[in-house]
Write a structure and sequence with these properties.
There is one protein chain. The protein contains 16 helices and 15 strands. By secondary structure, the chain is α/β, with parallel strands linked by helices. The protein folds into 2 domains: 214 residues, Rossmann fold (3-Layer(aba) Sandwich), CATH 3.40.50; 176 residues, Rossmann fold, CATH 3.40.50. The strands form 3 sheets. Strands 3-2-1-6-7-8-9 form a 7-stranded parallel sheet, with helices on both faces. Strands 12-11-10-13-14-15 form a 6-stranded parallel sheet, sandwiched between helices. Strands 4-5 form a two-stranded antiparallel ribbon. Strand 13, helix 12 and strand 14 form a beta-alpha-beta unit. The two termini are 18 Å apart.
Amino acid sequence: MRFVHVEDFIHPDAGYQVNTLSRLQAEQGHEVLIVTAELTKIPPFLTSFFGKNNIEKRDTLFFERTGVKIIRIPLRGFYSGRAIFYKKKLFNAVKNLKPDVVYMHGEDTLTGIQFLWNFSKFAFPIVLDCHMLEMASENQFRSLFRFFYRTFISPIILKNNIPLIRTHHTDFVQKCLGIPLQKTILLPLGTDTSFFKPNENRGRKLREKHRISKDDFVIIYAGKLDEFKGGWFLATSIKEKLTPKNGKNITIIIIGNVAGEYGNEVEQIFSASENKIIRFQTQTYYDLLDFYQMADLSIFPKQCSMSFFEVQSCGIPVVFEENEINCQRANFGNAFTFIAGNKEDFRQKMMECVSMDKEQYDTVKQNARKYVQENFDYVPIAQKTTELMIYEYNRYHCIKNKCQLSFKYP
């Protein structure tokens, strides 16, 4: 089948859901294309991490690696975290691809709303997903937006039984958008556990390469170093010497580019740290594996990205801030939470991890890998997503042809 994914922003070097899902669907034997925005009008807070130089070449490399073609469409602009496409150009680009099914990433984006508003005019079915969490919805106009969505958009979804995938185990769509949970499908985010996995021999060789002792306790952060991901909080938290009770030497690996005045200040604080910090620029999704295999602990100073699943799949415990989702994720003896925004608690939790005896810590590492394998292995999740899309293709055409659908969504 021909699947077309529509996403406001994608970078070919990242490990976003759309990157992984599209790759796995191509491996399943489907033709997969991604329609997304050109990068010229995407704001720096999104593009500075991976950069946008030679993007055509990088898109081509993504196609060579995955078999998934990226098609970029001009933008009117970008506002409040949302891409504003030229509607006619976007719709024509998707229609001209003659998709069997369109997967719309983000049911509450302007792009998603435009597709839903024009649903009856399309000759293809749509599958939606929702990544939103209540704690991430901070826009000052959110109450007005939710009223608008519940009044005008949710009825379109419900009337047409358009599949809506929830990527988090929360009631956001019901509480905020008026869509009953029983009308949605939970297919969580995750990672490819066959790619992200522990390799102690590889880890030892990489430590030698980067002159890190095999006895050092290695803490890693890989991600954006901006205000949204807590770059300054991280830098100031590790400025003073970390002193675990067992006296272990600590090496901290920080991966990620900085941008602007905020980023320069973060970099200066790293440079002044009393701890041993090794800095690396942003790495591609594929290159991150080597860095994870050197690490003993992964930290997330603020929020938590898809890389949580990647590091856990490599058998790495995590320290991250206490919130609704992270508390769920840390409930299996695999991770530790700290009080959000509290530097002392953040440092203390890191030191508790460093000071654990080997047997106890090995158990946490095993729990981390097991947790992802059993709940968030994205290979079977991608397969279920594909099955849903094929089901929706058949249901859509049965309705059009007034025939009886002979099977249910598994």
